[in-house]
């Protein structure tokens, strides 16, 4: 366990990101220890999604550094194809779940899950099938293995997307507003899957609007606004007794809108 | 209408129609590779390469196919390019349709939702693998439809090689009119053959389209 | 290989006449095919089958056969019964060809406009014909502008095909010059450049017209 405390699973140091003249991340520091779950909340435009996408390097950061299990994600020293190869390898260790699922519509549910292990790890068809069925079982969709995404509900799609991300046996899972695009009655089934992952000690970073869920599941909570981390604390403390005025306002407004 | 004459000339017209099909099919085949090359060049890291590909596409699309044909056939020898009429028709047809097709391909690729690209990249797939496994299979339907439209344009354009005396359908129609003095019979039969060819192409395209987009209604 | 563009300069006035003819033909055909296409579209949508079926058949026929075949039929075919000057055949042939393409566009835009607007207009008290002429057709026209522009840009390139029936447009004029100077490469390159410039200007014009049409839409 000492090893785990020495190298955090994810570490960000002074990460800055600009879109044109607008600075959306103004120097973010963050540490996620192995097996821990961190929730990031904040108003839209606060930079929380950009932060998550930067970890997966879907956004190219301008300053700072990102480390995954001690390995540097951003590598200014690597150019062109060398960087391509590096980042593809890094990304295989991170699972990303998107707000709009982004399932591959031309592949069946099972194929969605098995494509990456088959093509990237060279897993043979039979083992890939076993792995895929096992994962679909875990998200409760084994009976939909041969269905195509167009025939699934939003909640089912997102569960398949989680299975797809898990298929590469990632070290960390990144959830980018995984339930924001879902009808209210479908949110719970996705939350259940995420809770089970939490119980299995998967390291997770969750960007969410679901305060109740964030409070239930996470070990640490962060409030972001205007490209900075305004406040971070244990979820119990952050959600009930925030220290900062801005956090307080946000939570009050959010609760009012949900009531 | 003189039916017996129509029966008499139909073997000649069928033979000529086959030349039309042959020349168009070859041009489409080579045009496909030219288009794929152009699409690739347009994503090149080097600005001059991208610029050159764009300039080529713009010039081909901005000048008449007929002038391109005349330039290569009659002007080609001045730069050491001597092609027989049939080959000239195939080459000019391919380079012409290739430019249009590259735009169609690019459009189809860009029509695929960017989230697909992100999901694939986030799993660790590279640019090429993403194109191969994720983007192209989804762009295929639209691509097939656009290529179908271009194939029909190519077939209609192939009538222009009659000017450099390739004995294809339009050439034969004109010649038979001169020798039989029965324009209505000759032209309605030739038109019918063009229509048959075009509808056959449309049928093939529709089949391919359904195959490529089967996943949307499975 | 040695290039000599001096004959091109010598024959530049000849080429210019060809350019003039090409532009004039283009203008006449554009007006004819747009107005004609509009009329054909309206007739084929709002008349009885006996009237609109033959019309639709001709639209279909012009769209599924090559322009050159149509020109040859009109010129060499009909020429056996009645003597029509080549220029008339050329303009009518090209005009009918693009009239069919434009009518096809108008039919689609008229249908798309009348889907929502027809009922709204009738509910305001406009009659059937008033709705069609004051509400549907004007809107359909503006909605068709981008595609009409594309068609006209393609049409101008097709004017070069008219040289095949001996109309003295740009290509024909240069073929005359080539027959005297034996410089095909230089002349065809020049024509390509001229055509490219016309095309660039037309595309600029198209985006200007589209911006204006967008305001009216």
From TrEMBL, chain B:
Signal peptide: none annotated. InterPro entries: AA_ABC_transptr_permease_3TM, ArtM/GltK/GlnP/TcyL/YhdX-like, MetI-like, MetI-like_sf. Gene3D superfamilies: MetI-like. It is a multi-pass membrane protein. The lineage of its organism: Bacteria, Pseudomonadati, Pseudomonadota, Gammaproteobacteria, Oceanospirillales. It is found in: Cell inner membrane; Cell membrane. SUPFAM superfamilies: MetI-like. This is Amino acid ABC transporter permease. Keywords: Amino-acid transport, Cell membrane, Membrane, Transmembrane, Transmembrane helix, Transport. GO terms for molecular function: transmembrane transporter activity. It comes from Billgrantia kenyensis. Residues 17-205 form the ABC transmembrane type-1 domain. One of its GO terms (cellular component) is ATP-binding cassette (ABC) transporter complex. One of its GO terms (biological process) is amino acid transport. The chain crosses the membrane at residues 23-41, 53-73, 79-101, 147-167, 187-209.
UniProtKB/TrEMBL annotation, chain C:
It comes from the Bacteria. It is a multi-pass membrane protein. Residues 19-206 form the ABC transmembrane type-1 domain. Pfam families: BPD_transp_1 (PF00528). GO terms for biological process: amino acid transport. GO terms for cellular component: ATP-binding cassette (ABC) transporter complex. The chain crosses the membrane at residues 20-45, 57-75, 81-103, 124-142, 154-173, 185-202. GO terms for molecular function: transmembrane transporter activity. InterPro entries: AA_ABC_transptr_permease_3TM, ArtM/GltK/GlnP/TcyL/YhdX-like, MetI-like, MetI-like_sf. Its main location: membrane. PANTHER family: L-CYSTINE TRANSPORT SYSTEM PERMEASE PROTEIN TCYL (PTHR30614:SF0), MEMBRANE COMPONENT OF AMINO ACID ABC TRANSPORTER (PTHR30614). Belongs to the binding-protein-dependent transport system permease family. HisMQ subfamily. This is Amino acid ABC transporter permease. It comes from Billgrantia kenyensis. The lineage of its organism: Bacteria, Pseudomonadati, Pseudomonadota, Gammaproteobacteria, Oceanospirillales.
């Amino acid at each position: 366990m000492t090893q785990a405390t020495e190298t955090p699973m994810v570490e960000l140091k002074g990460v800055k990101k600009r879109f044109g003249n607008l600075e959306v991340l103004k120097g973010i520091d963050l540490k996620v220890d192995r097996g821990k779950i961190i929730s990031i909340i904040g108003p839209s435009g606060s930079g929380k999604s950009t932060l998550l996408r930067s970890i997966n390097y879907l956004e190219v950061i301008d300053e700072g550094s990102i480390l995954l299990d001690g390995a540097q994600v951003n590598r200014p020293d690597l150019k062109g194809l060398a960087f391509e190869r590096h980042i593809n390898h890094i990304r295989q260790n991170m699972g990303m779940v998107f707000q709009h699922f982004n399932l591959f519509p031309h592949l069946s549910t099972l194929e969605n899950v098995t494509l990456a292990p088959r093509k990237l790890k060279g897993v043979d068809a039979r083992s890939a099938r076993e792995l895929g069925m096992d994962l679909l079982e875990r998200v409760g969709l084994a009976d939909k293995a041969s269905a195509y995404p167009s025939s699934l509900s939003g909640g089912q799609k997102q569960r398949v997307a989680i299975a797809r991300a898990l298929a590469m046996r990632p070290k960390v899972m990144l959830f980018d507003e995984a339930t924001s695009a879902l009808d209210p009655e479908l949110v719970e089934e996705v939350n259940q899957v995420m809770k089970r992952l939490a119980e299995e000690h998967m390291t997770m970073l969750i960007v969410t609007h679901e305060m109740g869920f964030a409070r239930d599941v996470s070990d640490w909570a962060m409030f972001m606004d205007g490209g900075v981390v305004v406040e971070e604390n244990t979820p119990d403390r952050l959600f009930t007794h925030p220290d900062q005025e801005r956090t307080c306002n946000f939570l009050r407004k959010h609760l009012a809108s949900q009531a | 209408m003189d039916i017996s004459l129509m029966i008499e000339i139909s073997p000649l017209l069928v033979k000529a129609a086959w030349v039309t099909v042959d020349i168009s099919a070859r041009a489409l085949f080579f045009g496909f590779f030219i288009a794929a090359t152009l699409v690739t060049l347009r994503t090149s890291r080097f600005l001059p390469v991208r610029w050159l590909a764009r300039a080529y596409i713009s010039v081909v699309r901005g000048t008449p196919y007929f002038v391109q044909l005349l330039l290569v056939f009659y002007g080609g020898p001045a730069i050491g390019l001597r092609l027989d009429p049939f080959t000239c028709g195939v080459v000019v047809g391919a380079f012409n349709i290739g430019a249009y097709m590259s735009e169609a391909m690019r459009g189809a690729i860009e029509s695929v939702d960017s989230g697909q690209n992100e999901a694939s990249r986030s799993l660790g797939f590279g640019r090429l693998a993403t194109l191969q496994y994720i983007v192209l299979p989804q762009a295929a339907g639209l691509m097939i439809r656009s290529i179908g439209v271009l194939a029909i344009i190519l077939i209609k354009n192939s009538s222009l090689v009659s000017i450099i005396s390739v004995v294809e359908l339009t050439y034969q129609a004109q010649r038979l009119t001169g020798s039989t003095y029965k324009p209505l019979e000759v032209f309605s039969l030739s038109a019918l053959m063009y229509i048959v060819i075009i509808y056959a192409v449309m049928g093939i395209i529709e089949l391919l389209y359904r195959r490529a987009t089967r996943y949307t209604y499975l | 290989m040695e290039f000599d563009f001096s004959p091109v300069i010598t024959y530049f006035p000849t080429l210019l006449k060809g350019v003039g003819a090409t532009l004039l033909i283009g203008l006449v055909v554009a007006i004819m095919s747009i107005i004609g296409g509009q009329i054909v579209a309206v007739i084929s949508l709002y008349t009885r089958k006996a009237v609109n079926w033959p019309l639709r058949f001709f639209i279909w026929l012009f769209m599924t056969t090559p322009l050159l075949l149509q020109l040859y039929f009109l010129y060499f075919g009909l020429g056996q019964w009645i003597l029509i000057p080549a220029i008339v055949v050329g303009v009518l042939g090209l005009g009918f060809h693009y009239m069919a393409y434009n009518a096809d566009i108008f039919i689609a835009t008229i249908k798309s406009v009348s889907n929502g607007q027809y009922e709204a207009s009738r509910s305001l008290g406009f009659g059937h014909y008033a709705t069609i002429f004051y509400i549907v057709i004007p809107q359909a026209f503006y909605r068709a502008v981008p595609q009409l522009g594309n068609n006209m840009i393609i049409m101008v390139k097709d004017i070069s095909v008219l040289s095949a029936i001996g109309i003295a447009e740009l290509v024909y004029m240069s073929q005359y010059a080539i027959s005297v100077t034996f410089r095909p490469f230089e002349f065809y390159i020049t024509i390509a450049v001229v055509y490219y410039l016309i095309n660039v200007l037309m595309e600029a014009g198209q985006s200007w017209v589209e911006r204006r049409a967008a305001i009216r839409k």
